[in-house]
Write a structure and sequence with these properties.
The complex is a heterodimer of chains A (about 525) and B (about 120).
Chain A lengths: L5 E6 L3 H12 L6 E6 L2 H10 L4 E5 L1 E2 L2 E2 L1 H10 L5 E5 L4 H9 L4 E4 L5 H34 L3 E6 L4 E4 L1 H7 L3 H4 L10 H17 L3 E8 L5 E12 L5 E10 L1 H75 L5 H27 L8 E3 L1 H18 L2 E7 L6 E3 L1 H18 L4 E11 L20 E8 L30 H11 L3 E6 L6 E8 L5
Chain B lengths: L3 E6 L3 H13 L3 E6 L5 H8 L3 E5 L7 H10 L8 E5 L4 H6 L3 E2 L2 E5 L4 H11 L3
Parallel strand pairs in B: 1-2, 1-3, 3-4, 4-6
Antiparallel strand pairs in B: 5-6
Chain lengths: ~525, ~120
């Protein structure tokens, strides 16, 4: 069976004993031995250093060493080689001590027989090899556990620490001895300790691994994120004995992730801001173009109006003269002259509108009661309302804050709005006028206006709403209603200047005007916002 | 009753001739027309009008200057002047109770009746 001889070092100063062992070994047929004998410890040590032995048999009383010391020196010189101690009948106690210190076995010289000897040698070699493996394996795991950058610990079923690796000891700032037997409550704030123990119990209850990310607070008070893996510890029968936990700090990664997220969000935000400012810029440009257009139309209108007025005056004079000179009874001439007069009146109305549009920007502003202005204006259109069978509904808030306005100009605006409403309801209807004060929740902004005089958020606005139940404004025309000369009314009825002039007036007052089709109902709602009068 | 003497100063020839025609048609007025503003003062000195109808916007010299010349002339001092102009709007005139630049004012286009009413109101009696 055994092909290789067992290399044996026999340390024995007594030649008779040495010879005895040689004889005994020779009798063994199941194994072959390659025997080296040393009479002194020093010599044995040298030999151990030089060659490789499978086993050492040593006497404990040598000329240069005695007792346990001899064993110790041999054992430490070659810890990988199993040692069997030889003893006399009288020093069995000593031999037993050697075994306790790591000797594989002891043999009482006088009671040795080949059978016992070979069994002892074989067992020594086998056991020693197994021990070496175990030690190596333990060292391997120990090294792993202790050098892992992760924190590791174990707890028993009563939540007491039974093990902690170096890293965890460092984390707690405590030596291992101070951790074993303690619980989380000895090291962590109660709420954290409770949470940790709750998790442990969960692992014990379910028998499953628990993975989680915990928010932790370091002793220095900073927030930490910790990745945790908790597993149950089982005995050979699968019964759970406690828990084992590995955790590691992921704060850095978490921070990095958060930073990344933040940067992403910032990037998205700045992109959105950029896009918005681009949109704003475009809108502002359009507005500027529109405002520019309005300004030039205004200037042009004033010039045209002035130039047209003189010829109109001449025509007026001419017609006056002809009217007087026409012999009575000629109906045709009278009719022609009447038509001409009406044409002049029309042309004059348009030129007047144009001049209003290009009106000087000086306002005679006084604190006024908007309700009163509206009531006065309604009187001016009462006849038209009655004629068209239009019901008037007034809902004027009292008291209403005063507004700083040029009364005549604002009246002109409301005349325009009322007349438009009346025109939109040729066959009866209802005109509703409502006033109230409100706090602005957004800043007004009027397209086509170059004015920076807005109603700002938080300011009190006095609002007038004029509603009709008329035809409404076709959606595609909504953008055009403030364009000068744009009108849907029959020739001679509308100049196309009412709303542009109205808006201009409202804007001169720092107010805003908005015209919308009513939602869900027929007709149009015009909202006029004016700034509250502030005595300063 | 003596006819009122009206000096009409306006660069619009058609207007002046038609207005003259209309006014003289009533038989109540003697109208002299000047179409150049710088001719207005000499004409006034010579004609001694009971009222001057004066355009505001004219080439070379605005009506306001002509009015100032007349106001400053010792002989003509106090001669009533009425501006007749397309440069003001009717409601502006009304708001200012008819007074613009310290003189009454009539917005063009005005009917003959309106002009006559102005003359009757302001002309030297």
């Amino acid at each position: 069976m055994e092909t290789k001889p067992i290399r044996l070092l026999l340390v024995e100063d007594n030649p008779a004993d040495a010879r005895l062992f040689r004889e005994l070994l020779k009798e063994i047929t199941t194994a072959q031995f390659d025997i080296t004998v040393s009479a002194r410890l020093s010599e044995a040590l040298t030999k151990l250093h030089g060659g490789s032995f499978d086993v050492v048999l040593t006497d404990l009383s040598l000329p240069d060493s005695h007792g346990l010391e001899a064993f110790r020196e041999l054992h430490s010189a070659a810890p990988t080689v199993p040692v069997i101690v030889l003893s006399g009948v009288d020093d069995e106690t000593l031999a037993t001590s050697a075994v306790r210190e790591g000797a594989q076995d002891y043999l009482v010289k006088s009671r040795s027989d080949p059978h016992l000897l070979v069994r002892s040698i074989r067992y020594a070699i086998e056991r020693h090899a197994a021990e070496r493996k175990l030690i190596a394996s333990e060292a391997f795991y120990h090294s792993l556990v202790e050098h892992l950058p992760q924190n590791m610990f174990r707890k028993d079923l009563s939540e007491r620490f039974t093990f902690a690796n170096q890293r965890f000891c460092q984390s707690l700032g405590q030596p291992l001895e101070a951790i074993i037997g303690k619980t989380d409550f000895d090291f962590y704030p109660p709420e954290l300790a409770r949470k940790y123990q709750h998790d442990d119990r969960e692992v014990i209850r379910t028998g499953r691994t628990l993975e989680t990310v915990e928010e932790n607070v370091s002793p220095s008070g900073e927030k930490l994120y910790v990745q945790v893996v908790k597993t149950p510890i089982r005995d050979a029968h699968g019964r759970i004995l406690g828990t084992q936990c590995i955790f590691w700090d992921t704060t850095e990664r978490k921070r990095f992730e958060e930073q990344l997220q933040r940067k992403n969000a910032e990037l998205a935000a700045s992109e959105a801001a950029l896009r918005k400012s681009n949109e704003d810029l475009k809108a502002a440009q359009l507005q500027l173009i529109q405002a520019e257009k309005m300004e030039s139309i205004g200037t042009l209108a004033a010039g045209v109006a002035h130039e047209v007025k003189n010829p109109l005056a001449i025509l007026q004079m001419g017609i006056n003269y002809l009217t007087k000179k026409t012999p009575p009874g000629d109906e045709n001439i009278a009719m022609v002259l009447q038509e001409m007069k009406e044409a002049i009146t029309r042309a004059d109305a348009i030129t007047r509108g144009l001049l209003d549009f290009a009106a000087s920007k000086q306002l005679a502003v006084k604190p006024e009661d908007l309700n009163q202005i509206i009531l006065d204006t309604l009187k001016m259109v009462r006849h038209e309302l009655n004629k068209n069978r239009i019901e008037l509904v007034k809902d004027l808030s009292e008291p209403l804050p005063k507004v700083s306005v040029d009364k005549t100009q604002i009246q002109q605006v409301f005349v325009n709005l009322f007349v438009n409403a009346i025109h939109a309801m040729p066959a009866a209807g209802r005109l509703s006028v409502r006033t109230y004060a409100k706090q602005m929740t957004e800043t007004t902004h009027t397209e086509g206006s170059r004015k920076s005089d807005h109603l700002w958020v938080g300011e009190t606005a006095v609002v007038a709403e004029v509603e009709d139940t008329g035809t409404g404004i076709p959606t595609d025309l909504l953008t055009k209603i403030f364009d000068p000369f744009f009108t849907t009314k029959p020739t001679g009825v509308g100049t196309g200047l009412g709303l542009p002039v109205s808006r201009k007036i409202i804007e001169l007052h720092g107010g805003a005007i908005e015209i919308k089709n009513k939602t869900g109902d027929r007709g149009v709602r015009v909202t006029v916002l004016l700034r509250e009068h502030r005595s300063s | 009753m003596a006819k009122k003497r009206i000096l009409l100063v306006d660069d619009e020839k058609s207007l002046t001739s038609l207005l003259k025609l209309n006014l003289e048609e009533t038989g109540n007025y003697d109208v002299r027309v000047e179409n150049w503003p710088e001719d207005a003062l000499p004409a006034a000195r010579e004609f001694k009008p009971d009222l001057v109808l004066l355009d505001l916007i004219m080439p070379r010299m605005p009506g306001g200057n002509v009015a100032a010349q007349i106001d400053a002339d010792p002989q003509l001092k106090g001669t009533p002047i009425v501006f007749l102009t397309a440069a003001v709007r009717k409601h502006q005139v009304e708001e200012n109770e008819g007074i613009i630049c310290e003189h009454p004012c009539l917005a063009k286009p005005a009917t003959v009746e309106e002009v006559i009413a102005m003359i009757e109101k302001h002309a030297r009696k």
